Amino acid sequence: MPTISSNSLNPLWLSHFTATSSIGRGLDQTLAALCQRRTGLAPCTFDTVDLATVVGEVAGVDEVRIPAYLAEFDCRNNRLALLGLMQDGFAEAVHAAIKKFGAQRIGVFLGTSTSGILQTELAYRRRNHATGALPVDFIYGATHNTFSVADFTRHYFGLAGPAVVVSSACSSSAKVFSSAQRMMAAGLIDAAIVGGVDSLCLTTLYGFNSLGLLSEQACRPYDAQRNGLSIGEAAAFALLESVPEHPRENLSKDAVLLLGIGESSDAYHMSSPHPDGLGARMAMQDALKMSGLRASEIDYINLHGTATQNNDAVEGKVVSALFGQATPCSSTKGATGHTLGAAGGLEAVICALALQHGLLPAGLNTQNLDPALDLDYLLDNREQPVARVLSNSFGFGGTNCSLIFGRAGSA
Predict the structure, then answer these.
(1) 200 occurs within a structural domain
(2) Domain membership of residue 87 as a residue range
(3) What is the pLDDT of residues 201-240, one digit of tens each?
């Protein structure tokens, strides 16, 4: 276990975790796709979208049935959340935690960007063309509202603790780890469901297209010819608990711990990062400081890596300055697409799999690494022991978050 200083985080245990995205439902399918270097990106056929782009769509979301007692929450985002919650025994783990801690002592902290906005888009098509009124069966608060996914989750499990949604663009479901940690440190809760859910919708696809940020082909993070991102959707969850009193006796060596969190807000521009990566640097440095680790002790970095020219250049410059060429890194968005408000949670789970299986996943689709970026960027999978990893999530408006995870057997 790491030595804890006054600025350090008491490590938290990810006792259970799961992820569902375009590369698979649950951990086994996700790991298999990463090992096989298989992408989930395909030409966009979502709803009525008419754009020359590719997306990471999760198959079968429309077939998911929300329980009748939660019918008011029915929307694509909550159906995707339910699909995710049903994987890897996660729901059973939450029920066990309720028996252990009590329903009022478990919090829900989830990230999303657009939540159930698709439900509003669908309702708008059915509006009264004479008055403009939306259909009476449209329930904004339980679907479109950003709090919907947390409210759905707490009702699904019958939880009575605090529930929070963070909507800070692409850092949303990384920052929820910090929100949960603060409440646990304050003694308000004993455990927390953290993660994120974001689903495809027209607003996102046409919005990013209007910014000129969508690629017509599968995104190529850190490639010299990268030309934009690919939108994906995902649901990822982790159950956070305090580390047991005697961790060496009560945790397996492959247990995953949250060791450090770094947050910043440079507020440089609405959609562009600070040109010198000020906020990104602060987030990574603060995560290292909180963990009590040196940069040389990080074995892998999951880059934010959206495959836009500007974002990758800025992140790459800062990572190179802090870590040099010594630390292997990659962006997994070439596999999953950019899942926006769910990206931090999804990539946290991918980092957990890297720790447990000694797999450093390749950055898919990247063929000609940008020579201006001085990094050990993985073009092929690498298998080696992995003790500590860092995951970056940087959002519009300069909202940044870096997370450090480690294996209990070596943290």
Answers:
(1) yes
(2) 12-407
(3) 999 999 999 999 999 999 999 999 999 999 999 999 999 9
